[in-house]
Specification:
Rossmann fold; six-stranded mixed sheet; 29 helices; about 5% strand; elongated; disordered C terminus; transmembrane; Type_1_exporter; ATP-binding; ATP hydrolysis activity; ATPase-coupled lipid transmembrane transporter activity
Length: about 725
């Protein structure tokens, strides 16, 4: 069943590539078809030239015009093949480029259609590359080459085995060894043969055909036996790993010595001598070993007898001819024909070997095609689910989601496990366990907790990057993931919620090949698309808004100091390479080092650019939920304070959720503080309420404040907490 499903993708692949360029596709197919005939055709022309030359030498009367024609035919064939190869080599890259861009776009859309939960699931992970489809098609085309090569080789072999002699008498090469050549000559030279002679002629012809079949059978024997004696893993699904502890230890110390990632620790820890000695010890304990890959090790024979058998089988046709020559003692065999026949037999054996190998190759090719279209079906499935969900939501209510206040959020008994640990039902594997709380619309929320408390996991759920394993998350009273959306005054779809959400984290990336302006502008992609369609005036509006976002994010000053300002590309796409592994010092190396080099930028500057991108999105009136997760880890205290002040200034009509380790100057403005510990929600309230409780929040706050407290006045954590509570309004 699985094989049949894979085969159904072949017409789809062929159709997809054909539609990219019908003419180019037929040129490609014709090229692979003609390649199959090429070898046999050239060999046949060679044989024709050699036979005419040998006949002329033997008769001392060479046929000059015939030899010249044969040579010209050979030259014309070579020239035609060269022209065709040149032509196809210029057209094939065009179709290849179209196919790459086509599958690249399809796979890109498949990636973009997945949310974080589906993206991490092994069953729906997208691992095909844009070139997989093209190479799968080439493998299919190579099957045409194998088919036509096999047919042409067998036809040439039959032609050589049954061809007339150079003198024109109807005598096959095999008839020379069977004694039927005299009979055949008599049949052509004397039209009055008796019935007995006719019977002998028929008998001789049958013997010649039988011997022809023997030669072909001997030719087929070698690839068949070779396939049986060879041990392969091509049809086997397997895994392999190294279980020799001494080998693993030697590799480990080798990695420590050469990797730049460990260089600092190795030098500062004076580990060099230890690494040398331990590597030497592991190598000594390892002893003799094979470093072959599993598929290479399996091919090795336990004894040489198989190789001996294959060597003898390879020469069986020649041995057969030698025995026949001795037994029948005939001298009519042409040496040039025998040499040509021997070469043809070798080509035929190799072709048959390719046929047997093509079975495995074809099966692997089917798997490759299936992987491409399986990944493309991810997009189709996600798109169908999205349309179905949107239609259900529209059916429930047709109201607009744009509101003048932030999103109200409610978590009901939410448990969350990442897809990688979804099979582990133990409570310890859950990042969040049975979390329940409510966030009022337009509130300012601060989430606190130690490392591993579940803060980042909660952020992923609030931003709709993951779905809860159990429980429900309601946005304005509606679960966007519910299969049956109840009617109501308002609704959220997943796409609507993501468009209304702004996320600022410490790990925002600068996109490759983007200018600084584009890296900021993409924070509001809808606005960018609108401006792209609006001409010069819209472009000016976009630039003005990007400059304002950079100012709010604290990035405007350092951007203006850079060489190209907003037009600078920080991370260009790397396409350059050198012909040598290591270029020698000189002008060429200097030029190479400058090509596509990444520009220097500090961690704080990168976070300011990320903040500017966030403010670009915040300017969109559609934003109603802002989630800020440790955005200032690389900023100085002043830069962090200014960032939070700018964010607070734009909180009108938005629910803002902050996650930060340094939460001292935020908590006094918080409407709600949520405290997490080990994946569980432990307490919530305002700063004053939680400090009065003296619980987990009070401990975390006291630990941070202790660095700014005079040790002489610090009596205990409760005293510190009380002191901090009294001065909580200080920034």
């Amino acid at each position: 069943m699985k094989f049949q499903l894979e085969r159904t993708h072949i017409p789809r692949l062929v159709t997809d590539v054909y539609l990219l360029g019908p003419g180019l596709f037929w040129i490609l197919a014709l090229n692979y078809s003609l390649t199959g005939f090429e070898g046999a055709m050239l060999l046949w022309l060679n044989n024709r030239v050699m036979t005419l030359i040998e006949t002329g030498i033997a008769s001392s009367n060479p046929d000059g015009p015939a030899i010249l024609r044969a040579v010209l035919y050979r030259i014309a064939a070579v020239a035609a093949i060269a022209v065709w190869r040149w032509f196809s080599s210029r057209t094939q890259p065009i179709l290849k480029g179209r196919a790459k861009l086509y599958f690249q776009e399809r796979l890109m859309n498949a990636h973009l259609s997945q949310d974080m939960s589906h993206y991490r699931e092994a069953s729906s992970s997208i691992d095909a590359s844009p070139m997989n489809g093209w190479y799968a098609l080439l493998n299919l085309m190579s099957s045409l080459d194998v088919i036509f090569s096999t047919v042409s080789s067998l036809m040439l072999l039959a032609n050589l085995v049954l061809k007339p002699t150079a003198s024109g008498d109807s005598v096959s090469l095999l008839s020379v060894f069977t004694g039927t050549d005299t009979l055949m000559k008599n049949s052509t030279g004397n039209a009055t043969t008796d019935a007995g002679s006719s019977g002998e002629l028929a008998s001789g012809g049958a013997a010649s055909m039988a011997n022809s079949l023997i030669v072909i059978a001997l030719c087929v024997t070698w690839p068949l036996v070779s396939r049986m004696l060879r041990h392969e893993l091509d049809d086997t699904t397997y895994i392999a790993h190294v279980n020799n502890k001494h080998y693993l230890r030697a590799e480990s110390f080798h990695g420590l010595a050469i990797s730049s990632s460990y260089k600092r620790e190795v030098i500062s820890g004076t580990m060099s001598e230890y690494i040398r000695r331990e590597h030497e010890k592991a190598r000594a304990l390892l002893g003799p070993f094979s470093d072959d890959y599993p598929f290479e090790a399996v091919r090795q024979q336990s004894n040489p007898f198989g190789a001996i058998v294959l060597g003898v089988l390879d020469d069986l046709p020649l041995i057969y001819y030698a025995i026949s020559a001795v037994v029948y003692r005939q001298s009519g065999l042409s040496l040039s024909s025998l040499a040509m026949l021997h070469e043809t037999l070798g080509i035929t054996r190799n072709t048959l070997e390719r046929v047997l190998m093509e079975r495995t190759s074809f099966r692997e090719n089917l798997k490759q095609i299936r992987s491409v279209y399986r990944d493309l079906e991810v997009q189709d499935k996600a798109g169908a689910e999205s349309v179905e969900g949107d239609e259900g939501a529209q059916k429930a209510t047709g109201s607009d989601t744009s509101q003048s206040k932030g999103v109200g959020i409610e978590l009901r008994n939410v448990t969350f496990r990442y897809p990688s640990s979804a099979d582990d039902a133990s409570s310890s594997s859950a990042a969040l366990r049975d979390v329940t709380f409510t966030l009022p619309p337009s509130s300012l929320v601060v989430i606190v907790g130690a490392n591993g408390s579940g803060k980042s996991s909660l952020v992923n759920l609030l931003c709709n990057l993951h779905r809860p394993t159990a429980g429900t998350i309601l946005f304005d009273g509606v679960d966007p993931h519910a299969t049956d959306i109840s009617t109501g005054a308002r609704f959220w779809t997943t796409e609507d919620l993501q468009k209304a959400t702004t996320l600022l984290t410490q790990s925002h990336s600068l996109f490759p090949a983007f200018t600084i302006l584009e890296n900021i502008a993409i924070g509001d992609p809808e606005f960018c698309l609108d401006c792209a369609e609006g001409g010069a005036a819209s472009r000016t509006h976009l630039v003005e808004r990007v400059h304002e976002a950079a100012r709010l994010g604290g990035a405007l000053e350092f951007i203006r100091k850079r060489e190209k300002g907003f037009d600078e590309v920080i991370h260009p796409v790397t396409t350059s390479f050198s012909s040598n592994y290591s270029l020698a010092e000189g002008p060429l190396k200097e030029m190479y080092d400058k090509l596509e080099a990444w520009k220097d930028i500090s961690g704080g500057e990168q976070q300011r650019l990320a903040a500017a991108r966030t403010f670009m999105r915040l300017m969109n009136p559609r934003t109603r939920l802002v989630v800020v997760d440790e955005p200032s880890s690389a900023m100085d205290p002043l830069g962090e304070f200014e960032l939070f002040e700018q964010l607070r200034a734009m909180r009108q009509g938005k629910t803002m959720v902050f996650v930060t380790h340094r939460f001292g100057h935020l908590t006094k403005y918080a409407d709600v503080i949520l405290c997490l510990k080990s994946g569980e929600f432990v307490e919530s309230g305002t700063h004053q309420e939680l400090m009065a409780k003296g619980g987990e929040y009070s401990k975390l706050y006291a630990v941070q404040a202790r660095a700014f407290t005079d040790p002489a006045t610090e009596v205990d954590s409760g005293h510190v907490a009380g002191t901090l509570n009294d001065s909580a309004d200080e920034p």
